[in-house]
Amino acid sequence: MKKLVLGLFVLVFFLGFILPVNAQEGWNLVRTGDPDDFITVFFTDSKRGYVAGDNGRFLFTVDGGKNWQRQFVYTEDNINEIYFRNDDDGYLVTGKKLFITRDGGKSWREEVIYQPRDFSKGTPEFLSVRFADKNRGVIVGSVLNNSDRVIDSLVMRTDDGGLTWQRIPVPFKDELYHLDFVNSSDGWIVGDMGAVLSTRDGGLTWQVQITGVQKALYNVDFRDSKDGFAVGGGGTILRTENGGETWEQIKTDFTSTFLRVHFASDKEGWIVGHGGTILRSSDKGKTWIKQESPTSKSLYGLFMSKKYGWAVGASGTILKYDR
Length: 323
Fold this sequence. Notes:
Elements: H1 2-18, E1 26-31, E2 38-43, E3 49-53, E4 58-61, E5 69-70, E6 79-84, E7 90-94, E8 97-101, E9 109-111, E10 123-131, E11 137-144, E12 150-158, E13 166-167, E14 176-181, E15 187-191, E16 196-199, E17 207-209, E18 217-222, E19 228-232, E20 236-240, E21 248-249, E22 258-263, E23 269-273, E24 278-281, E25 289-290, E26 299-304, E27 309-313, E28 317-322
Antiparallel strand pairs: 1-28, 2-3, 3-4, 4-5, 6-7, 7-8, 8-9, 10-11, 11-12, 12-13, 14-15, 15-16, 16-17, 18-19, 19-20, 20-21, 22-23, 23-24, 24-25, 26-27, 27-28
């Protein structure tokens, strides 16, 4: 009997060396220490991904984040968001510029979408871009005066795939930070002072939704036309199950500013924010649990899927989530 137990021990010990060991589930630090902050991250599949941020810094990977390469997008402005409509068609918003790729990010070209006379009282600042379908797209942000103070909100829309854009009036005058579409008709924008705007016609018209909060809302994520989430300052987490007709504020003990929320499935969601904070929900956002984070750097960007996840932040921080 002793010989049998000893033999099994030796076999297990030996197999531990020759068989691959799966990495433990959790967040791992991929890189940090760059001179610029990373603000946004987007992956088109498990191998190909992009991160970008301050001073036009833009990196891409084709091997799932094992190696990152620098790419020049011919801008020194902060790249505020990367968004791909499909594997080939992608968009960058950088300050007052829009860049488009039609070849999966191999090359980027600036698309002029306004004339200086269109903003005689200020300068546009583009913060977020989304497409409802192949033709309909929306950019949101603000209009700044010479002192970089917000003097108006900004919503611009295209219905020809991004070739031409028109400014759309909305019933809100402060800064707008982020937007999301779930189909060709239904979309939401979040902004300063707890603002949420919604559209049911692909971005032609927008209506104010009542949230009951005054903190800035920095990010919005909808799973479908009913279930959505928004996060913002002072630990604000909002949840709706009826398309935003009513919003419920989720109470937690966390007071960090939350900057991104992304649901990988109907039940599993993630939030990141200041101080390296990472939260996870497994019950459709009803409750949130703080996760172990490998960084204390603020996290500004988040991309989650059912099989993998990425977060980026201050000082060039890149985190990968391994399942």
